[in-house]
Amino acid sequence: MTTQDTTVRDASSPGAPKSTILASGRLTAWRGVDLITAAMLAVAFGVAFWGFDTFIYPLLSVVTVGFPPAGELSLGVWLIPAVVGGLVIRRPGAALFTELVAANVELLLGNGWGVAVLLSGLLQGLGVELVLALVRWRRFGAATAVLGGVAAAILEIVGYEWWAYTADYSPAWKLAYLACGVASGALIAGLGGLALVRALARSGALNAFPAGQEFRESRATR
Q1: Burial degree of 113 (CB within 10 A; 0-12, 13-18, 19+)
Q2: Which CATH number belongs to the domain containing residue 187 in this structure?
Q3: Considering the domain boundaries, does residue 22 fall inside one?
Q4: Keyword Transmembrane: yes or no (predicted)?
């Protein structure tokens, strides 16, 4: 893949930078800092998954016992690493790598789903990768983040959860389950993931990445 332009003049959402800065050099040429940062993000998310699985998810299961499909409103929590990894690194494979490493950390720390979390991580990461491929890794605003969260949710639910967890649901409940998951993917993973990336950029943690450069340029033009 050839070297791409590094800047796209566009503001895809309110509050977005006036220009989108792309990954430098060849799109597939990961830098050492890309790999290290994606791994660090993934480990942090994996630990957060363990905490969510252990202390929060059981409570949500109790709250939604009257209408189990509503429990899928929490799905977006597990999709965030793929969205954040893709928006930060901005290279093919970043979303998948971050999500899969986070799933491995979750598995090592212990969870209620066992090795199945690796299949979930694969499907969730692929969902975001598909959206980034559609925009050719050139758009990283709210629309891309939301669509990535939605695609990850759809692949996870249709490709796995419908058959593993909700096989006995009625068609109406399955559709409600899907709708809840899609909403969670859009809001928690999509908009939440984008908000997290922008917060990290403001903190200076992403100075070596396009998101950090976008923030610095936006401050310089004020």
Answers
A1: middle
A2: 1.10.1760
A3: no
A4: yes
| Residue in this structure with the two tokens 């999509």, named with its chain if needed | 190
Range of the domain at 77: 27-210
pLDDT tens for the 222 residues of the chain, in order: 334 446 665 444 555 566 799 998 999 999 999 999 999 999 999 999 999 999 999 999 899 999 999 999 999 999 999 999 999 999 999 999 999 999 999 999 999 899 999 999 999 999 999 999 999 999 999 999 999 999 999 999 999 999 999 999 999 999 999 999 999 999 999 999 999 999 999 999 999 999 999 999 988 765
What's the pTM?
A: 0.92
Quick check: is 19 in a domain? no
